[in-house]
Structure formats: structure tokens, C-alpha cells
Amino acid sequence: MLIKTTARAALIAALALTSAAAWPRAAGAETVLRIGMTAADIPRTLGQPDQGFEGNRFTGLTMYDALTGWDLSSADKPSVVIPGLATEWKVDDADKTKWTFKLRPGVTFHDGTPFNADAVVWNVDKVLKQDAPQFDPSQVGVTASRMPTLASAKKIDDMTVELTTKEPDSFLPINLTNLFMASPAKWQHFYEKAEGTDAKAKSQAAWAAFAKDAAGTGPWKMASFTPRERLELVKNADYWNKARVPKIDKMVLLPMPEANARTAALLSGQVDWVEAPAPDALPELKQRGFKLYANEQPHVWPWQFSRVEGSPWNDIRVRKAANLCVDREGLRDGLLAGLMVPASGTFEPGHPWRGKPTFEIKYDKPAAQKLMQEAGFGPNKKLTVKIQTSASGSGQMQPLPMNEYLQQALAECYFDVQLDVIEWNTLFTNWRRGAKDPSANGSNATNVTYAAMDPFFALVRFLQSGMAPPVSNNWGYINNPKFDELVKTARQTFDPAARDAALAELHAASVDDAAFLYVAHDVGPRAMSPKVTGVIQPKSWFIDFSPIAMQ
Amino acid sequence: MSELPLSATADAALQVAPATSARGYWATVGRRILRDKVSMACAIVLLLIFVSAILAPWLGLEDPYKGSMIRRLRHIGTSGYPLGTDELGRDMLARLIYGGRLSLVIGILPVILAFCIGTSLGIIAGYVGGRLNTAIMRTVDVFYAFPSVLLAIAISGALGAGILNSIVALTIVFVPQITRVAESVTTGVRNMDFVEAARASGAGPLTIMRVHILGNVLGAIFVYATSLISVSMILAAGLSFLGLGTKPPEPEWGLMLNTLRTAIYVNPWVAALPGAMIFAVSICFNLLSDGLRSAMDIRN
Amino acid sequence: MLAYTARRIVYVIPIVISVALVCFLLVHITPGDPLVAVLPADASQELAAQLRAAYGFDRPLPAQFGLWLLRALHGDLGNSIATGRPVLAEVMRAVGNTVTLAIAAAVIGFTMGILLGLIAGYFRETWIDKVATSFAIAGVSVPHYWLGMVLVIIFSVELNWLPAVGAGPNGSNSWAWDWAHLQYLVLPAITTSVIPMGIVTRTVRALTGDILSQDFVEALRAKGLHERGVFRHVIKNAAPTALAVMGLQLGYMLGGSILIETVFSWPGSGFLLNSAIFQRDLPLLQGTILVLALFFVVLNLLVDIAQAAIDPRIKRG
Q: Solute-binding protein family domain: from which residue to which, for each copy (chain A) (predicted)?
């Protein structure tokens, strides 16, 4: 499937030569890393990035820190939550909605002002307290939805804050990785200078100014910013975590939404690193000495089943048969050129939330056929299922070819798969409307991929009965008292190890119930010039740019 | 997009045909166009494309929807796939021929709709005159104040992707243009003798518009409308190219151009094929419209 | 002349207000959540309602329109929902890039068009005329976004002479008029120039032919007037109409650049419009459409006035 012609090889070689000559590198000893992102625009720079987790990767975790962070130091171990700007935290014994966070001493923002409890309260208020001057509705959506239970913050002393949740929620420390700490003093400076008819207009103007000249506490500082075209970050030599002071001087981020343009830019030396190179160009890149990195990501490419009355997926034998009928290794080695990890659940073995499911998801066609026959289907009595999907979309990998692959695979197990292909945005919106909504168009499964970093997003919103539309993404109206019970337990277990055990139990139960057709995990492929060294790609959506060096 | 005659009245072809000899006039026009080699060549090419699009299911082509991962992006001339395969391994020849169905409909239908609506509006405005004329023509002016590409994209961008929406958007783009032409030729005829005569003999405004005006202005408006088909084809495919028209997996030239664009580094010439189809249809319509225009130009 | 100019300007005011209304309605009558850019699909309903209120989308449409128009009159088109940046600044920056492209295309297209048109007009009904008019008809019939793709295939993919996309090695911010930057402009400018080239050719050809076939030209020639004199006569008589056509073409290039800018990732107003559409960023969308439409209205006005100034017979309105 990888088409390669000599003409093309020649083209790329020639392209590399001439273009490299046309763009001389930055002179002198300064080391610069230029990255082509997949985003069409620079993610927002004011603290709460847009553009999903790619936004957090490039303009969140680089310039900012949160109270808690992700361990990105290993390519083998699962990436877990570790202390960030908070050194320790605990929930109140008497009132499980109150948490105390001890802050890291001696941290300063890029503008030199100290990080303290006031700064934390200020940053919580920017998205949660509507009458605060810094309240910014544009940052609320991406932030509040990722920490659905946080209600307010209160200063205890300079280095201690108390956070309150709407209900007891042991996931709070994980959620808090999404709340980045921006410098209140810097914002205040812009606010006072801002012109505007009212406080709201001044606040907006101040945020717009802050986005152009931002200050966080992160290992990278903003150097220059051209909207939609270019963001330059320089290393923060005074970063509080000396082990994570960047090795390179400067990082340039360029939005390059087209895979081919991105790949050509890497080949021509216009950039040193691209996210998601064009799959058809991988052999070319390897052959020309470029380095490829990929690792399992907390991401699932599923079919999410409808469980409303009359859905064929209400029969667990059918759900299990579908899971056993797909040759995921074949999909990986064929269509996806190695760029996926076969999914046997939301989390794979080794992950703290994996648990011990008894139903083993693998390719076993005879077993699948047997289950289907037990359920009353056979070569002459096919089961018709309809899947809603899109032709493209963020995180969707290659939705049409992959669904066609499933269509062919499942035909062997007496399924007649019909695809309802709609626009990505519509598919995403319908996800929230549920299987009963007319927008589902009679589909009994939907194909929206999901990120699985946080237990709420990975499990709870799909499995808990209370999360059925319009509340959240339990699209298929799963209503399983066992899941509800396990969710409740996990949310109210505050000892981290015990909480993880409860989540593992929930995950194992969902696998045993074949709650989804689990197909693939994305691997976040990236390609870079051989001059880039020290790259560790963790099992995460994110990556730590600090240990990276340029030769 | 912008190849519209500047002002309709300045155009020689838009002269009003003499009412008395209408049948003889059209016969002459027909004879003249049949003698025009370029027009006839274009007509034959268009006919071929139309007929093959209509007869596509009976031509023994591959299934235009059925792809295969193992035969992606085959080159032109691969045995079994004379025009290669697309990014999902679907046969390009089949998709180009089937693609004619949607592409022609979304390109031509807006002009037909706009012709009907615009002619009615223009004749009413031109014949009735007064406040009604002002109301219609000032509204038309507002839409005229947008460049047509911008207007088409703004409307279909607002309505969202879809075949129906793109037809609506293009119709809205063309109605003001045709209305202007219709109004201006109608104003030209309304005070002519034969209209005065009809009015004197007691004919009502509807009768006059239908019987006396329509027949005399239709030719001019029709020629103008044919010159819009090429623009409409390009714009309709352009909307799909931007992702604002047809949705996958339907075969349609603009959309095919869009999805194949990612393959230009791998299989460039297959990626360029759908655009060549749009070009062929568009240039044929333009030449045919030019031929019709000069055939109708009495002065020559 | 002054009175005419004043009358034209007054006449434009209601057009401008109606154009603003159309922009606003287009963007607001449509289904879909205006906050999709900042509100994830998994946000709670409560949060959605709260944000709608914060952005003022819960107010009745006439009130929203009034407020928007009032602010627009003060030069404030609001802030983009997706990025929070002021719309006017975003649009003007992008328009600057589109102007660069349009001017380059105009230079190519108008020069070629005038040359081809004059030659074709002079040698009417000869093979030279046929070649020139074929060029013109191809120019107006070609789907220019496809032409752009074909040029990229030839000059970037196959020959590798010119870059395929972008506006300079370091983005448009550091634009300079040297070859390192200009090479990015070549393909998009040529692509943009084909339609104006075709139209100007056809216009100039028709004008030249008409003027040359007039009786008094024969008379002038009979009187022994130099061919250069005849030529000057042609230019003088063709100029007003040709200029008007070119003015309008410039307007179309500014307002209709979206397809070409998308093909070449040229960071102009069309590219901005494209991303505003797909992000459903309403303030940015209506602001971009408004600014582009206003450019077109103003250009039309200037063309009218200039035309009347050159040739007082054709005062309109």
C-alpha cells in the first residue's frame, strides 16, 4: 500500500537540497528546535490552550505549570500524575469536598513575581468566579469541562490553598493538571493599561495583550508570537526544577495542518521535527535517516454501542463476538503501517487502571462465529448494524478505511455493517445528543475516539447511567447498576492506591461486559531530523521538551 | 467567478429580438450555431459527458464507492484502472464518470433556478416600475455589493456543508445578476409600440408580461444565463473543494479534488484529473455561450 | 463632478448598512452552537448556558445586531471567540497579505490582458486573434484552484523550482521583496491572475476592435495620421471602460481569494475566512465578510467616480 516512485524520491531529495540552501539556519551557538504542529493555528498562549491536547502539549506544558503534572520521564511506564506547583495535597477527613494543597516555595513567574496562594486563587477565579475581573469566558469551556467538580479556591496562608469541590471527588488532583497558572501581576499590568468602555472590555483587552506577551512558571518563556503563523519560545534558565531546565535555547512552533506540507518541510530542512508525518512518506523518511517516534497513547478508537431498547448490541454475545472478530494486528500491519496499538480495553496491561478482566479481547474468529450462532445469527441470517462515523476528525486516525476494514472483518461473523458517514463536527455534536436522538439516524453505534488520561473522560462519562444525554457522553444509554456502584466507589476513595484499584475494577467490569468494540490506540507518530537527540516519547499525549538536545 | 459582462445593456447580443419574426429569428440562430464548428465540438463533448454520466450504471464500470487498501493510488495506465485509483483505492474512471452526475446537477441547477426566479423578478420590476422596482432593485444591489465568490462561500459556510445548501447558496448568488439583466431589457421594451398597443387594447399587466414581454426578453436573458453556467460549475465544485458542498464518499469532482490533494506528492496526475473534468465542462459551456451570443447578434 | 461624487457617496450608505445586516443575518440565522470553538462537546448544559450569557448570545437578535453595528461604527468588530484576539486587527493583517497577492496578480494579469487584447483587437479574425482569445477563454473557464494545484504539481513536485505553500520562509510577518520571499508569491500570483487576464483580454479586444472599425478611424488614416496616432486614439477611447473592468477585477481578487489562498496556505483574508467558517467563529466570520464586502463597495464607488471623471458621459445613478 505504500506507493513509492523513483520520481518522487528524486523530488524529495532535490527539494531537500535546494530548500536547505535557501533557508540558512540560525547562526552562532544558539540551538533552535523548529517544530511543525498539526494544528491550523497556534494554540492559545494565555494559559488555557485550545486545540485539544496538542494545545496543552505546545502552549500549555511548555510555558506553564499546573498544581499537578504528568510524569513524562519514561517511554515504558504509564504516565501518572506527579506533584507540580503543589508539593502535597490531601482531602479533609471530615468534609470530603475540601482539599488542602501545599504550594512549592521559591517559584517565580517569568515576569519575576512570586507564585503563591493568591496566584492560585486568582487562576481558579479566572474560570470559575464570574464576577472576578479576570474571569474570561473564552477559557472556561476548555478548562471547566476538564475539572467538572471544582467549585472554588481559598487562601489559607501564603503557601497553602483550600480547594472546594461540588461533591466528593477523588479525581480532583488529576483534573488539576489542566489548570495552568498564569501570572496575575502581569495580567493586572495589562488590565490597568487597557482601554475599554467597561470592566469586561478591559478584561478582554488585557487577556488579548497577555496572550501576546505571556508569563507563566514553565520551563519555556514566550519570545515572540505571530498569530496563526509562528510562536517562539526561549528556555527559562531559572526554572524551579533544575532537572528540567531546557537544553536547547529556542523552540519555534509552526502550524502546518497538511500532512504532506509538514513532511515536505521536514525533508527540506525547514523544520527539525514534525508531528504526525504523512503515513505514505514513512519509508522515505526512514530511508533518508530521519528518526521516527511513536508510543501508545491514552486514546481509544472504538465503536460505542447503543443500548437503547431494540439495539442488537443489547445481547452481550453479539458485543463479545464483534470484539473477537477483528484482526487488530492485521489492521496495524496493513492499513496503518504499524501506527497503532491493538486495543484490548481502554487501558492496556501495565496501566494502574487496567485491572484483571476475565474476557480476553483478541482475534478469535471461530469463537466469535460460535457466539453469533448462539445469538441466533448465521451465514444466512446476518445481523444488520449501522455505524455513524465521519471521513475525518481530530484523533479519528483514518476513519473511513478503518471502518471499511471492520466492515469486511465483521462480515465473516455474520454482521452486515452499514456506515452512515457524516461531517466530523456533526458526528461530535451528535455524540452528546445520544442514540435516541433523531440525529443518530437509526445508528446503533457511533465512532468517536476519546482521550483516556483522566478517569472521568476515560470511563465515567460513558459508563455511569447518570451521564446519559444530555448530561454527558453516555451516548448509548448504558445503564448498569454495577458500573454506577463502582463509579461511586472510585470517586469517593481518596487514598490514591485504593482509588486506582477501584478504577481498575471498573475498567475490568467494562471489558468483561464488552461495553465497546475496542479497536485501536493511536501512537502519536512524529518524525525528526537525526540532529535532534534525547527524545523520550512517553505513553502520553504530551512530551517533555526539556531533555531534548540539538547536535 | 467574475467573468460577468459589465453591464447588460452594453452587450450587443442582448438586443431585443423583433417581436414579429420571432420564429424565423430563432430558426436563423439555430442554423448559424449549427454551422459554427467550435460550438458544435463543445456541444458534442458536453453531450458525451452528460450521456455517460446518465448511463454510468450501465457502462460496466467498477463500483465507484468500493475501495481497497491494497490498490490505493495506482497510477494512470495501471491495467484494470486506466485512470488509476484514488486515496481509498477506488477506480478513478468510474468515479469521474459517476462524478459527472452530482457535479453537473450542482453546477447547472442553480443557474436554472436563478433563471426562473431572476427573470420573474426582473420582468416584474421592469414592467411595473415605481416603488416595486425600487424595492426589488435596491435589494438586488445589496447582494451585488458582495463579490460572488465571497457571497457563495459566506452563504454555504453559514448554512453548513451539503448539496442542497450549496445549490441554495449559488442560486442566491445568481438571482441578483439575472434580475438586473431582466430588469434592464424589460425596461427597454416596456414602452415599445407593440406593448403600448397591447395595453391600449385592454390587456392586463399579467397578460402583457407573459405574452408580450416575456417572449421578447427571454432570449437575451437566456444567453446571459448560459454564460453563468461555467461560473456556476467552477463555484459549485469550489465549494465542495473547500468542504462546503458534497460530503464524502459521494463522487463529485470538486470533492475528489479536495480529498486527492493530499496525494499530490505520491500520485500527482491522478490527483489533477477531477479538475480537468471541471475545466472541460466549463470551457465548453463558455464557448457554447459565446457561439450562441454571436449567432444571436443580428448585426453580423 | 463634486455633486455627482457626493450623490454616489450618499447612495452607498444604505448599501453599507444593508450589507452589514446581510453579514450579520447570514452568520446568525444558521443552526449550530455559536460557542462550539470554546465549548467542548462534553461541557455541561449549565456551563453552555453560562457561556452563552457571558458572550451575549442569549440576547434577542435585533439587540445583538444593533450592538454589533454600533461598535463596528467605532471601529470595533469584537473579539474572535476561538482566539480572543480583536477581529479588526486579525482581518486587517490578513487583508494586507491578500493585497500583496492581488497586486502581484493584477500586475501580471492586467499587463498580459492589455497586451493580448490589443494584439487580438488589431489583428481581428487572424490566427493571432484566435490564439489570444483562446488564452482568454481558457483563463475565464479554468477552475483556478485546480490550476493552482497543477502548477504546484509541475513547479514544486515535479520540477522543484518553487515552494508549494506558505508566505515566506518565516511566515508573512517578516515579508521582504527579495527572491527568498518572492518565490512564494509566484505560483499563487500566476494562479490568481488568469481570470483577470482573460477578462481584460476580452474587454480590450472588443474595445479595440470597435474603435478601429469606426468610420472616423478610417478617416484619420486617410488623412495620413500615423499608426502611432491611431494607437493613441484607441488607448484614449478604450481607457475608461478598461479601467473600470480592471478596478472591478481587483475587487474580485480581494474578495474572492479564498480558494487560491486555501490551495497555497497563503495567510490572507480568504484563508482567515476559511478557518472562521470551520471553527464557526461568528465574530470573526461576520467581521471578515463585512470588511471584504466593504472593500468591494468602496472599490466599486471609486471605479464609478473615476470613470465619470474620465468620461463625463457615463455618469450613472
A: 81-445
CA A551 to chain centre: 30
The count of other CB atoms within 10 Å of the CB of residue B300 is 8
**What is the CA C198 to chain-centroid distance, rounded?**
16
Hey, is the C-beta of C187 within 8 angstroms of any chain A C-beta?
Answer: no
C151 and chain B: CB distance < 8 Å anywhere? no
Positions of chain A with pLDDT under 50: 1-27
Q: Which domains does chain A have, with CATH numbers?
A: 65-188 (3.90.76.10), 299-522 (3.10.105.10)
Cβ-Cβ contacts under 8 Å, B278 against chain C: 143, 146
C73 and chain A: CB distance < 8 Å anywhere? no
Q: How many secondary structure helices (H) and strands (E) does chain C include? A: 12, 0
Q: With a CB-CB cutoff of 8 Å, which residues 442-501 of chain A face chain C?
A: 457, 461, 470-473
pLDDT of A108-141, one tens digit each? 999 999 999 999 999 999 999 988 999 998 888 8
C145, C152, C195 ranked by CB distance to B238: nearest = C145
Domains of chain C: 1-74 (no CATH), 87-315 (1.10.3720.10)
* Candidates A208, A254, A429; nearest CB to C86: A208
pLDDT band per the 50, 70, 90 thresholds, residue C43: low
CA-nearest residue to B261 within chain C is C149
A189: closest CA of chain C, how far (Å): 18
> What is the three-state SS of A128-194?
HCCCCCCCCHHHHHHHHCCCCCEEEEEEEECCEEEEEECCCCCCHHHHHHHCECCCHHHHHHHHHHC
C-alpha to C-alpha distances, B18 to A462, B24, B215, B296, nearest whole angstrom = 74, 10, 10, 12
ipTM here:
0.88
Interchain CB contact of A136 with C (< 8 Å): yes
The answer to whether C157 contacts B265, with C-beta atoms less than 8 Å apart, is: yes
Residue B216 contacts residue B263 (beta carbons within 8 Å):
no
Optimal mutation site among C38, C73, C272, C274, interface A, most CBs of chain A within 10 A: C38
Distance CA B257, CA B263 (A): 10
Cis check: omega of the bond before B82, within 30 degrees of 0: no
Q: Give the neighbours of chain C: at least 3 Cβ pairs within 8 Å.
A: A, B
Q: How far apart are the first and last CA of chain A?
A: 35
Chain B residues with CB under 8 Å of C273 CB are 150, 153-154, 157
* Cα–Cα distance measured from residue B287 to residue C134, given in angstroms and rounded to the nearest whole number: 10
**ω before A257 within 30° of 0 (cis)?**
no
Closest CA to A232 of A251, A213, A247, A216: A251
Identity of the residue in B148, B244, B279 whose CB atom sits nearest the CB atom of C143: B279
Short-list C165, C190, C167, C184, CA closest to C253: C190
Asked if A447 and A435 touch (Cβ cutoff 8 Å), the reply is no
* pLDDT tens digits for range A360-415: 999 999 999 999 999 999 999 999 999 999 877 777 888 888 888 898 899 999 99
* Chain B neighbours, 3+ Cβ pairs < 8 A: A, C
CATH match for B25-296 among 1.10.3720.10, 1.25.40.10, 2.60.120.430, 3.10.20.30: 1.10.3720.10
The helix or strand, by DSSP H or E, that contains position C291, with its residue range, turns out to be helix C282-310
Of B8, B58, B33, B20, the residue nearest B185 (C-alpha): B8
Q: Please tell me whether residue A506 adopts helix, strand or coil conformation.
A: helix
Interface contact flag, B247 A3, Cβ < 8 Å: no
Helix (H, G, I), strand (E, B) or coil at A39: coil
What residues does each domain of chain B span?
Answer: 25-296
| Min Cα–Cα distance to chain B from C165, Å | 13
C-alpha cell at A440: 443518530
